[in-house]
Amino acid sequence: MLLNVLFGTVLFSYTASAQSKIDTPATYKEAWQKQKKAAAKQELLAKEQSEKAKEHQKMMDAVKQEMLKDGLIQKNENYELIINKREMLINGKKLSESVHHKYIELINSKRNKAFGDKEEWKIKE
After folding, report:
1. Which residues pair with 8 in a beta bridge?
2. pLDDT per residue over 73-122, tens digit each?
3. Is residue 71 a part of any domain in this protein?
4. Cβ distance 73 to 79 under 8 Å?
5. What is each CA distance from 52 to 55, 56, 60, in whole angstroms?
6. Residue 23 CB neighbour total at 10 angstroms
7. Fewest CB atoms less than 10 Å from the CB: which of 35, 67, 68, 91?
């Protein structure tokens, strides 16, 4: 089937046979399969991200518990922690090198990854 449509001075031709190649059930099924695969991939990525977030929260809880134990912060008290490769500060007060080293090691052990040279954490609670 050939359909001619006139828009202004331009004539467009459209054949039904060309459209039928696009609208075949196989094409819809392929598109559905692609979307199904993409959805499964997104679900897997979301699950991985959720697991990473849980692990990060466990690590942060361990750091906070250790700071409470060491008397660096008080329970139910707001604080600001800044830690990087060079120093550790709580509420703007620089802590000793030995305390700093202890917390870098704690963080490294909890995440199985060395603290990066350019990495810095800023945490406010």
Report:
1. none
2. 999 999 999 999 999 999 999 999 999 999 999 999 988 889 899 999 99
3. yes
4. yes
5. 5, 6, 12
6. 9
7. 35
Contact predicate 94/87, CB 8 Å:
yes
Cβ neighbors of 6 (< 8 A, separation 6 or more) are 12
The answer to whether the beta carbons of residues 90 and 73 sit under 8 Å apart is yes
Strands in 80-84's sheet, in edge-to-edge order, are 93-94, 88-90, 80-84, 120-124
pTM of the predicted model, to two decimals?
Answer: 0.66
**What is the tally of structural domains in the chain?**
1
Residue span of the structural domain in which 105 resides: 25-124
Q: Is 90 helix (H, G, I), strand (E, B) or coil?
A: strand
Among the listed residues 108, 100, 58, the one whose alpha carbon sits nearest the alpha carbon of residue 83:
100
Strands (E) located in 78-118: 80-84, 88-90, 93-94
Q: Give a yes or no: residue 73 inside a domain.
A: yes
**Model confidence pLDDT, tens digit, residues 2-22:** 444 445 555 555 555 555 555
